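Marked as duplicate of an earlier ticket. Keeping the data here for the record.
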Amino acid sequence: KEREGGFSRREFLRSALTGTAALLFGCGSPETPGLDGRIDSGIPLPQAPPLADSVSSAERSALAYGFLKSRMDPDTGLIESFYGLRLNDTSYRRSYIFTAGQAIGAFLISGGAADRERATTIGNSFIALQDSAGSGFEAYDVRSGEITAYGQKIGPVSVLGRALTDLYQATGDARYLGSAQKAARWMIQKRWRESGGKGYFLYNDTDAAVSTEENSRALIFALYLYQYADDGNNADYLSKATLIKEWLTKDMWKGPAWPYFEVGLGATGSLNIASAERSDAQYMPLLAFAKGNEFGAWNVNLADYDGLSWLENYRVSVRYNGRD
């Protein structure tokens, strides 16, 4: 709701979070730019030099978690997706829900109590923002919680839904599982298509575009709900995952003569040969098939769908800060 007659979106989000949020984030004042935990001023930042090879993996991990922690807003619980952008950049001060899902996963992997609390804070923020149909918009203003990108994409919703399922597993709080199941219902009701023993989720509501990457993420989300859902739809979630697998292996996989996955279908429903996002299209199906193997949904030989070797043809040399 707007402020008229009630809370602003920022106040609503703040009321949904724990009172200890500021302590958990270690945040400074709103006027302080940089890595004290608040949002930077939008002035482009100089690139830091790469870490020395002698820096241990534990030190690198601590630095990464420290940076991630500093990107969280203490009032909204949202996490800023990019740092150091110019004020006129379209992603300035945006919190993308894809980022939220990835951050939840990172904080849960940390294993610490404080980081788990940070993960739940991000989860609480999405529950507060989730629309009545179950979806989430692509991005929100990190400080106010206002919608800044109105797209509703299958991949980001799947990543966040899977993260909420992880939160449920970590905390036992059924709110997170309920939110994930609500998101899945929106996906199935609004975007699901199937025919001839194959199925997929449409990229949007306006045309026939379909993404290999986003459907692979949706497949993983469906497998998690097959394992953990309490809404009685476990078999349907497994069916959706299996139909996506069939679409990926039968329609998108070009091997063995051309061992790679196509990136998906374009707006007209024909193969999308314009997109250059071929790396995501190679590794995401493998991760999805492997998760299905782990959950006992099927027994796919991953070597039969290895587009990573083919992807090596696209490798280029990059020189950054004087290093190859």
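See parent ticket for discussion. The mean pLDDT is 86.
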